[in-house]
Amino acid sequence: MKTSGSEYFFDCHCHTMTLGQVDITAFLGNLLRNADWEVLLGIVGSSAKSSDKRITSHVKNILNLLTLMQNDLAGIFNTMEDDLKGEFGGESLVDENGLKINGRTYHKLVLTPLLMDFKPAPGAASLTYYPQPRKELRTVINEYSFAIKQYYKERPNGLLYIFPFLGINPAAYAQKELESIIEDSFDFYRLKKSTRSVRGSGLLTLIAGHISPKKMFAGIKLYPPMGFDPWPEDKEERKKVEYLYSYAQGASIPITTHCNDGGFVTVDYKQANRNTNPARWEKVLERFPDLKLNFAHAGVNTSLQFTNPFGKKEKSWTERIFDLIDRYENVYADFSFNGISPKFYEKFSRQLSELEEAGRTRYRDRILFGTDFMINLMAIRSYRDYYSIYEDAVLDIELKHQFASVNPPSFLNL
Known about the structure:
With about 425 residues, the chain is α/β, with parallel strands linked by helices. The protein has helices at about 25-35, 35-40, 50-70, 75-85, 135-155, 175-185, 190, 205-210, 235-250, 270-275, 280-285, 315-325, 340-355, 385-390, 395-410, and strands spanning about 10-15, 95, 100, 105, 110-115, 160, 165, 220, 255, 295, 330-335, 365-370.
C-alpha cells in the first residue's frame, strides 16, 4: 500500500506519570479497591494451580507498571518508543521511515499525554493521619516541559511528537487561580486563528511552541471519578466550569473527559458515576454547542450490568455518546484501554455495523484511537502489544486508518 511520507499516527489518550507525581496514597487505595480479590485470594478458579497463574499474572502487571513509573518522564517517552521498536520483545513496528501499521508507514507518532490533577477539592477526606505531600500542578507542568525538551534533545530524529493535555479539577481552585492556570497554559488568540495542518510542514514549528511551561498544552483533561462535576448546582462552582468551557470553545481547545464506570475513583462511587455519565454533559453542550469534547473509553461499562425486567431498557453510555455525536459537530469518542482485547473490536465492529444499518455514519469522523497507556498495563503486557492487537483487529483497515490518522487532527485543531 503506497502511503504519504507526511502521514501521522495519533495516540489520543495516554498517560505518562512518575511515582513522584501521583498521589501514592490514593493510587494504592484505588488499586486495593479495584483489585480482583477473588483471583488474588484464590477463591475462584478451576484449580489452585490455575488461580496461582492468574495471581502471578495480576502481580506481574502491577510490578510492570510500577517499574515504568520509577523512570523520569523523558525516560518514559524513550521507553514507549523503544517498545514499539521491539527492544523489549516481539517484532519491531518501526523502521527508519516510521511506524508501520496495516501496510501503511506513519512518519511520526503523535502523543497526547493527559496530565492528572491530584489536588483534592476543599474538604476532601484523607485516608491517612499525616497529610499527603503533593506536587503542585505548576510543578508538574514544569517537569513536563523539561521532559519534552529532553526527549527532543536526546532524540532529534525520534518517532514521537508530544502534545500534552492539562489535567485540572476546577473545584480544587479559586476562580482567579483557575483563570491564571488556564491563561498561562494556552494561547487563546493563536489557537483561535490556527489554520495549520499536520499534512503540511508547520507541525514541527507548532510543536516548538509547546515545550515551555507557558502556552504548552494542546487540550484539557477532566476527570469526574476524582470529583469533577461537568455541571455543578452550586453557582460559584458553575461559574468556574462555564469559564473553562467558554475559553475552550472560543479557542477550539479540545477537552477529553473520562467516561467509563472504572478508573481512578477517589470519591463516592454513586457521585462518580453520576458525574461520569454522558447524560451529565447534555446541559453543557446545550449551552456550549461548539465545544470540542471527547468521551474517553467510549462509555464502555466495566461492571456487570443488570436489565430492569419491569421497565424500559436504559440506553448504555456508549449509545448516549453516539446520540451526542449525531447531534453535535464536535463530539468525539476514543476507545482507549478497551483495545487490550481482540474481543472488544469484535463487539465494537458489530456496534458500528448496527449504526450503519440505521443510516448513522457520523461516527466515522468522530472516533479516535487511544491506548490509555500507562494505566492499561494493569491488563496488558506492553505499549507495543496494544498496537499489535489494533493492527490485527477485525475492523476495516481504512476505518482503522481513519480513527488513528484522519480524525485526530480535526479534534486537536491541527
